[in-house]
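Researcher: Sequence recovery benchmark, item below. Answer with residues only.
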């Protein structure tokens, strides 16, 4: 079929031309007055979403950093509390005596502290010392438990270093051997040092006095 043989007279009719023109006008109007503004709004919204996502990711990173910092602060706070208990701001000989007596009572009713000397202050940098000397009496196993608990932060928070631990059988005739686990009674002399924060100490040492505890 040849193109020039088509009857196109209908497109030349005024009504058809008006209809086509109206449709074109509507399409143009829709494009310029609706599609273009909406496209611009969509672009704006997408930009805002991208910005918010970037901000959210930044906040997530900040939150993680804050959580890590908070965890460190909690950890350091625990260390500071432990150090404050282990090395108090003052010599506190009275408190040290009480802590030692409490430790002995917690181990066994058969373990006695016979005397304690802990009143001499020796200033130092950065730590001051409180020379410690005490005598205990009790079953062999309880005496060694006492020594072990002096180094147990959960049992005895104050920092102490023991330089001498000398056990002697309470009854020499029994032939008790301190190297063997037993319930034989021993007298034990212990010497060592407790510590305190020398920066706060006035730097005045007092003469040592012996504290004798009741049996």
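Model:
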């Amino acid at each position: 079929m040849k193109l020039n043989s088509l009857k196109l007279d209908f497109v030349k009719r005024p009504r058809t031309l008006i209809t086509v023109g109206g449709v074109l006008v509507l399409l143009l109007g829709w494009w310029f007055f609706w599609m273009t503004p909406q496209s611009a709004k969509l672009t704006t919204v997408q930009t805002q979403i991208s910005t918010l996502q970037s901000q959210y990711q930044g906040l997530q990173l900040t939150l993680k950093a804050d959580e890590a910092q908070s965890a460190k602060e909690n950890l350091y706070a625990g260390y500071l509390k432990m150090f404050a208990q282990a090395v108090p701001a003052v010599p506190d000989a009275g408190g040290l005596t009480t802590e030692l007596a409490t430790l002995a009572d917690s181990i066994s009713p058969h373990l006695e502290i016979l005397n304690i000397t802990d009143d001499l202050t020796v200033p130092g940098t950065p730590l001051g010392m409180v020379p410690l000397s005490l005598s205990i009496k009790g079953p062999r196993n309880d005496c060694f438990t006492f020594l072990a608990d002096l180094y147990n932060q959960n049992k005895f928070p104050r920092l102490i270093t023991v330089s001498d631990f000398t056990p002697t059988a309470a009854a020499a005739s029994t032939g008790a051997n301190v190297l063997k686990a037993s319930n034989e009674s021993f007298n034990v002399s212990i010497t060592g040092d407790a510590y305190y924060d020398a920066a706060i100490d006035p730097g005045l040492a007092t003469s040592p006095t012996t504290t004798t505890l009741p049996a």
